[in-house]
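Contributing new complexes? Match this layout with magnesium ion.
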Amino acid sequence: MIKRLIDKVFGRKGGDHPVVIAAPEHGIRREHISHGARRVCEQLQENGYAAYVVGGAVRDLLLGVEPKDFDVATSATPEQVHRVVRRSRLIGRRFKLVHALFGNEVVEVSTFRAGAPDPGDAESAAQMVDEHGRVLRDNVYGTRQEDAARRDFTVNALYYDPVAETVLDYHKGLVDLRKKTVRMIGDPARRYREDPVRMLRAVRFAARPGFHIAPKTAAPIAELAPLLSNVPAARLFEEMLKLLLSGNAAACVLQLRTQGLHHGLLPMLDMILEQPMGERFVTLALEQTDRRILEDKPVSPAFLFAALLWHQVLSAWKQATDRGERPIPALHEAMDRVLDQQTDQLAIPRRFTVTMKEIWGMQPRLDANTGRRPHLLLEHPRFRAAFDFLALRAESGEAPAELVDWWARFQVVGATEREHMLLPATAGTGTRRRRRRRPAGEAGERDTSGGNTNGGRTEPPSGSRHDNDPEAG
Ligand code: ATP
Ligand code: MG
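Output block (do not edit by hand):
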């Protein structure tokens, strides 16, 4: 109480007056700022408003990392921004923002806003937070200091003025950045209650090489982790996607586990990471994603989520075949079940689940390297993804490497060679299913009882590692 009074009279400690850092010390030059963000700041300043590049872009430039995008914060209201910046549009209903358009670049411009009310101020707090302290409304404009205080981590509360070339630092963010420390502004527990997604953001930033979460910032996470269940599933998905596409996905998932955030949040990870095959598969998928991002190659979220959930699908598939269902219908039932369960926690948009199902559904079909099927599969728009998925399964020991080699070759050789590869007499890869025609009714049925002598066929797991096809030798 007394502390609150003192804070009110003298201002919150450390947050009222920014340290102004000059160019020689921070090293950012205005040329590092995107054309659009620079123009927006210049135009707003010419019209008498304050305007800065904020958030991730400043943090990343100080780290020598190329920013993903540039956000601008200003004292101008959205309507004022819209009047000043010729090509711009107002977006958002609850909290209005402006998108300023410069060629292909879209600069997000937000008006300084005040953070959540002090929980001591019962009346305004009651209107703006739920019973767990989660902020429901944060659409109140504020001063620059207030805007800095409502940001999450000190390293994310730096303001760069591209006209003056100075950095304004309200919360010792530069010191923390140099120490690679992720430190919450204000009382960490309260800030996580306001927005539990901040726990995931802490993990994402701390997974960068050399970074760590300050002990006091990390301390409340394990206890508050269950609050993530109050976050709308779609927002959780967005945040998970950022985490998985951060280029440090493998480290992020490790951090999630260290912080106790994987329980409940991602039921899939709970189970999967606790079994060696699952852990290996997921780790390989994450490492591959990180590598691709590092190399600036595109990554498909659908592929990644398909990988994250694959072992869950495998186990649901096994349950269905154990009940006596035929393999393919059982697989489809398993896919639907896993996706249904997952949607409660973390809503994966339909545009991804459709592709995920295609990738999963093609796995057993990739065994069929005889007849016309391989030709048809090759033409499937999702063939490449399904093939990459097969390769991942092989790398984790779940599918025979020879099958991957067969498909790798089948894709690149000419028509004659393809026919040749499909001829039973040209076996030698050892991965072909030398299945003779069976009497009607038997065809397509698979032996799911035996376990690991399935000649590379994709089947529900038998609990043990796939061996190579014994026929192959
Ligand atoms: P990225 O590199 O992923 O874009 P970022 O820090 O820029 O990282 P954004 O989601 O783009 O992340 O948010 C921009 C800025 O808005 C952050 O740097 C931070 O200052 C503020 N911010 C974003 N999310 C929150 C949050 N949940 N709570 C408080 N501040 C936030
Ligand atoms: Mg950003």
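Reviewers usually confirm one structural detail per submission. For this one: The radius of gyration is 27 Å.
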